[in-house]
Amino acid sequence: MRHLIDPTDLTREEIEQIVALGEDIIAHREKYREACKGKKLATLFYEPSTRTRLSFTAAMMELGGDVLGFSNANSSSVTKGESVADTVRVISSFADIIAMRHFKEGAPLVASQYATIPVINAGDGSHAHPTQTLTDLLTIKREKGRLDHLTIGFCGDLKFGRTVHSLIKALSRYEGVNVILISPEELRLPDYMLQEMQAYSNLTFREVRTMEEVMPELDILYMTRVQKERFLDEEEFDRVKDSFVLDTEKMKVAKNDMIVLHPLPRVNEITREVDKDPRAAYFRQVENGKFVRMALILTLLKYAEKAPAEGAAPRYSEPFEINRHVCHHHSCISQTEDVDQLFRRSEDGTLRCAYCETRLK
Ligand code: CP
């Protein structure tokens, strides 16, 4: 059984196969019209979403399959205290594949240990968003013609921006990628990501505090929203919320073929005038999301047919250190659900929680 919880669950070859399948679907939509006839996708969304949930829904409908699920945890038995583990055990007998979004980091990993059908992480807390990454990669491939030898500036909320974390991990597999991290001090990339980036041999990175100083060298500018919902302190949010605004003046010094990406939703970090610039690729990016999710659903259902789930739950995909340490990160799923404490040892010898990747102090 294969799940997609983190972008590193897919090899570079597998990512490229999914991106190529997405391109084939765009070119030959008719061919895939009944590819999932008789199959059901369950969308379990414990946190709000427009693009991800509806693009998964549209993707399954275009493949000839059906969709069930909830878009708000309040309309499910979660309000009665049902756990993620029990919920997905139940859903496994109703559907063929699950897409889950959750406000707690690691919830989709828990789901993958108890489900007997493939689980796709549709965004967990400020941790990861691997299907946005596939969307971004298909967009970069279509817009730039390549996934290597690129200078990409990530701008805004790099601390809570799960799309940034996941795309950097995926790009670390490509040659000649130069990452520029543009954020205020308060919204820097989390420590675990910075440590990981130091270990990537084929990726270079540096941190800067202004967009203007790097604009002319960028092939891609990846804008992000400052994520109000993740702040514990409202005053801190007010201090940083307007840190970066991309406008037509700033676009003047960018390369003619630079593209602007944004996972959306946007608030005020890109002015409306920029939408008219042909380099603004964020609405084309949204459309690619549906096609790449079609490709992912097809791929995971094919894997599940070849290798169904085996053994009793919980099924662990790697040799974790089990219940020997405790994670204290406030937004980790292990804080609210009765799950085994799982840690993995990183290459630098540190222990990290398998759910939220917080380092053991
Ligand atoms: N990009 C993204 O995840 O958007 P939604 O929150 O609307 O799903």
Q: Number of DSSP strands? A: 12
Number of helices: 10
Residues in β-strands, percent: 15-25%
Q: What is the radius of gyration?
A: 20 Å
Mean pLDDT: 95
User: How do the SSEs run, as a string of H and E?
Assistant: HEHEHEHEHEHEHEEHHEHEEE
Strand order of the largest sheet: 7-6-5-8-9
What is the general shape?
globular
Going by helix content, strand content and strand pairing, the class is alpha/beta
Distinct bound molecules: phosphoric acid mono(formamide)ester
Q: What are the low-pLDDT stretches, counting only 5+ consecutive residues below 50?
A: none
| Major sheet details | 5 strands, parallel
What level of helicity do the residues show?
Answer: 25-40%
Query: What is the distance, rounded to the nearest whole angstrom, between the alpha carbons of the first and last residues?
Result: 33 Å
Record keyword descriptors for this entry:
10 helices, 5-stranded parallel β-sheet, 4-stranded parallel β-sheet, 361 residues, alpha/beta
Descriptive account of the structure:
32% of the residues lie in helices and 16% in strands. With 361 residues, it is an alpha/beta fold. Helix 7 links the parallel strand 6 (177-182) and strand 7 (203-208). The radius of gyration is 20 Å and the shape is globular. The structure holds phosphoric acid mono(formamide)ester (CP). Phosphoric acid mono(formamide)ester (CP) binds at residues 49-52, 123, 132, 263-265.
